[in-house]
Design brief:
The protein contains eleven helices and twelve strands. It is an alpha/beta fold. The radius of gyration is 21 Å and the shape is globular.
């Protein structure tokens, strides 16, 4: 039976899940409910383990980590993003990386829609003002009939497009991999940013998508347009976003992800106008959590049974 390390279940989600006893049946478990404080501590926690179940994207698997753990054969990631792992180093060392695609798509898409409503209707602002005794009026955006640009057409992007269509929005889409979706009509990025009243980002973070949205894109957007980001913070140039919000170049933003997480005290985005923020929690409903953890554990079972599934790189 393989030795399996869980080096970073903090805050703990795995221990109370239905997937945890299943994991115990797969091998010898080394479990930690705190985050490793350094790269050296992560290496120590992995030790001679053959598999890692990675819970947090803040745990970075660098080339040094892979080189220092010669017995490691598999990292099973709870989640879709793999930007915190050096995939080239993993491939060089023969370590398979598996993830859990699609399981959080509904949860993330619903959260993106919730952020959109909160920004368009200024719900946090209206709530605070009403509690102070005011009775504010107007300044809202009606979404039906508006154009929604969806950037990225994976599982989350497709589900968000469906929800946006369901509330009466005209949806246009752009994706990097058009050949995967025969029959779907995509627009250009320039047209999407210049014509959309809402732009929602659903890309994976990679060298190609780092700061994918910056000053040039904000300059093309309508003055009242809303940006929604539930993908990864570094897809957006945050300095350019703050400038666009403060200057009124765009109308607002709903953000679940940031370049630095958790947000440091005094982060300027905390004071940005007409911005609704949440703590990278879009994909964490009970349903999505259990489904994702179950799949992450099942990826370990499948790999050691000789039938690898959901492998990003071998």
């Amino acid at each position: 039976m393989p030795s399996i390390s869980i080096p970073d279940d903090a805050p703990s989600v795995l221990a109370a899940s239905a997937a945890f006893p299943v994991l115990h049946g797969l091998g010898k478990i080394a479990y930690q409910d705190t985050l490793p404080g350094s790269e050296d501590e992560l290496i120590e926690r992995i030790g001679s383990s053959e598999a890692v179940l990675n819970i947090r994207a803040t745990t970075r698997f660098t080339a040094r980590v892979f080189d220092a753990c010669p017995n490691l054969r598999l990292v099973s990631v709870w989640g879709t993003g793999t930007d915190h792992l050096d995939l080239a180093a993993a491939q060089r060392r023969g370590v398979a990386i598996a993830n859990t695609p699609g399981v959080s798509a509904t949860s993330i898409a619903e959260h993106a829609l919730a952020l959109l409503f909160a920004v368009a209707r200024r719900i946090p602002e209206m709530d605070a003002a009403t509690r102070r005794g005011a009775w504010p009026r107007g300044r809202f955006v009606q979404l039906a009939g508006k154009t929604c640009g969806v950037v990225g057409y994976g599982a989350v992007g497709r589900e968000f497009a469906r929800l946006a269509s369901g509330i009466g929005m005209h949806v246009i889409c752009w994706t990097m991999h058009r050949d995967r979706y025969p029959g779907v009509v995509f627009t250009t990025l320039d047209e999407l940013f210049s014509t959309s009243d809402v732009v929602s980002l659903h890309l994976r973070l990679s060298p190609e998508t780092h700061h994918f949205v910056g000053a040039g894109q904000f300059a093309r957007m309508k003055p009242a347009a809303i940006l929604i980001n539930t993908a990864r913070g570094a897809i957006v140039d945050e300095d350019a976003l703050i400038d666009a919000l403060v200057s009124g170049q765009i109308g607002g933003a709903g953000l679940d992800v940031f370049t630095g997480e958790p947000l440091p005290s005094g982060a300027f985005v905390l004071e940005a106008p007409n911005t609704v923020i949440s703590p990278h929690c879009a994909g964490i409903t009970p349903e999505a959590l259990e489904a994702g953890l179950a799949l992450a554990v099942d990826n370990i079972r499948a790999y050691f049974a000789g039938r690898p599934e959901n492998v990003v790189t071998r």
